[in-house]
Every structure is written in C-alpha cells, then in structure tokens.
Design the sequence.
C-alpha cells in the first residue's frame, strides 16, 4: 500500500512531495538568518546526492543530474547575490569567491564524472554553513 506506484506516482514521488511540504513550511516561518541556513542545508543535500550518484558510477547524464546541478548553481548564485559588499567588505568578497569556486567545482565534477570536486565543494560550503549556524 505505502511506497507503491499508483495515483500518487512512483514511491520516490511521495517522499519528494513530503520533503517539499516540509521545506515550504520551514521557509514560511523563517527569519532572514534562518532562510540562509535553509539554503545551506539544501545546497549540502544536493551536493551530497550528486557526489553519491557519481561515486555509485552514475554519470553526469544520469536522470535528475541536470536538475540537481541547476539547483546547486541557483542556490550558490542566490547566496552570492545576497551578499552586501558595501557593508561586508573583504568578508563578502571572500564568500563570493568561495561560491564561484563551488560552482566551478560542480562543473568540473560533472565533466570528469568525478565526485571529488563535489566533496571539496561540500567541504567548503559546510565550513561556511557551520560558521553561519554558530553566529545565529
């Protein structure tokens, strides 16, 4: 009964819908600081999923990979676009450079079908996310 195909689609489709509902409810009540934390969480999950797929031998052309790349890139662009360079100075410039490097690493990983650049991007973003959580 549960987890079978039917009126609601494939087993993973229901899980994805519940996850979307959870994400939407988290976003609706979030402060600006919490919104950034949610972006970091979503980016981390996306990078982890991409790295796992490449590690398992699924190539960059695997179903869903273009959407994951687009999601990760969109989040990174959103994070970079939210930086206040006038107030943030060197810190904002440094974060922008990290976000650009993460985008480069994503592209490199997919071109080479190698999860290592994704793991490196995840590590860099994870350090920033941890710092963000600690100041919250």
Sequence:
């Amino acid at each position: 009964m549960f987890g079978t195909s039917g009126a609601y689609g494939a087993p993973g489709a229901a899980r994805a819908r519940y996850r979307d509902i959870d994400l939407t409810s988290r976003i609706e009540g979030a402060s600006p600081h919490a919104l950034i934390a949610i972006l970091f969480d979503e980016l981390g999950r996306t990078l982890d999923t991409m790295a796992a797929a490449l590690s398992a031998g699924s190539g960059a052309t695997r179903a869903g990979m273009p959407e994951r790349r687009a999601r990760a890139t969109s989040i990174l662009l959103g994070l970079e676009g939210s930086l206040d360079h006038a107030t943030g100075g060197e810190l904002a410039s440094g974060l922008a450079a990290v976000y650009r490097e993460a985008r480069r690493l994503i592209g490199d990983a997919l071109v080479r079908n190698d999860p290592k650049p994704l793991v490196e991007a995840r590590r860099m973003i994870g350090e920033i996310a941890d710092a963000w959580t600690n100041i919250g």
User: Anything to note?
Assistant: The domain at 32-135 is CATH 1.20.120.340 (Four Helix Bundle (Hemerythrin (Met), subunit A)).
